[in-house]
Design goal:
mainly alpha
Length: 198
């Protein structure tokens, strides 16, 4: 007959490390849960880290590739934050494909016009994920700026000009998309609360 210790998996040499790693993950998640409601303070902390990174780049006069990659990543996050989760241009393409296939005979009980129903703006990248990704990228960029292997010699004014051109072109395209499909990704104006008499 086998002993009960033979059926249980034996604790390996990595068990203490796995335990500490699990504990660190729980503490990290608890910290994230605690800072979630403090939107302004979260973004101020990220702005402080960004300032620290910018000072590091300016005073060290290097790591321009790291700064450029970081700026491109932030631009990508910003675009995902400004875009709707369900792209209206894709819905128009699907509707056009249905019409080409002759699917106009099938009557749908749902509203046929886009303006017939209320559609809230749902972001492709929620604010929380935007903040978390931007903060992680800032921390990674700061760490990368301490390693010489990331200090690639480049002519940095070209990178700055190229980034601004890229920013202007992508923002122009995004604003045209917003105007064409009539959506605004921000809460502008007075917020109406249910139960108020004003």
């Amino acid at each position: 007959m086998m002993a009960s210790s033979d059926t249980e998996p034996s604790a390996g040499p990595m068990e203490p490390l796995a335990t500490h790693l699990a504990k660190a993950r729980r503490q990290y998640q608890q910290w994230l849960d605690r800072v979630t409601p403090f939107v302004l303070y979260r973004w101020l902390g990220t702005a402080g880290l960004l300032s620290l990174f910018a000072l590091r780049i300016v005073f060290a006069q290097g790591w321009y590739i790291v700064a450029y990659a970081y700026a491109i990543y932030l631009l990508n996050l910003l675009l995902a934050f400004l875009q709707p989760k369900f792209d209206p241009s894709l819905q128009d393409d699907l509707l056009a494909d249905d019409l080409e296939e002759g699917a106009e005979g099938s009557a749908s009980p749902l509203p046929s016009q886009r303006d017939d129903e209320f559609r809230p703006f749902v972001r492709r990248l929620p604010e929380w994920q935007f903040w978390l990704s931007a903060t992680r990228a800032t921390l990674i960029s700061i760490v990368c700026s301490f390693f010489e292997m990331f200090d690639v010699p480049v002519y940095w004014p070209i990178l700055v000009v190229y980034w601004f051109v890229l920013f202007l072109l992508t923002m122009r395209r995004q604003i045209q998309h917003m105007v064409k499909y009539k959506y605004v990704p921000f809460d502008i104006g007075r917020k109406v609360r249910y139960g108020s008499h004003r």
